Amino acid sequence: MAANLIARSVHDLTAAAWFGGSLMGAVGLNGAAAAAKDPTERTRLSALGWKKWAPVQAGAIGLHFLAGLALVGDNKTRVSQQEGVGPLTVYKTAVTVLAAVVTLYSGILGGKVGAMAEQGSQGATEPHEGASKELKSAQRQLKILQWSIPALSGAVIVMGAQHGEMQRPANVLKGLKKK
């Protein structure tokens, strides 16, 4: 029971860090960086903030996957035998992997934008007219991805809550009888 409690806690806390850090970055960090007076500081400051957050986020994502594996292993009977648990586990895994890929790609784009900070910009994800095509492209993609990451990681949290509801004794009994 203690191992399951630890795995579940790590799983939930790391998803919360992923969601909250991404949302705060999009709203707070990028918003604050856009207010810098010097246009060359806008992308530089945003890139610096994201670079400092990246190891924490990567650790959270890695631990989230490990805790998820522990939970699936601990609940393998329910996953295979209780109606709805298996498919939800597959969907949640797919969304989690997609969120991780989007997060990684966002980090790569953020590095590109940071490297081109001397071009200046209107904001962390808003290029100015004179920016290179490469910078404009990276910023446009980041503008979408900065909202995709909290949406996807938020979906992971919601599916985790759904898994929790499916684990209530009455739902387990009903799900096992149906399958």
From TrEMBL:
Transmembrane segments: 15-36, 56-73, 93-111
Domain of life from the UniProt record: Bacteria
Entry protein name: Uncharacterized protein
Keywords from the named record: Membrane, Transmembrane, Transmembrane helix
Species whose genome carries this gene: Arthrobacter zhaoxinii
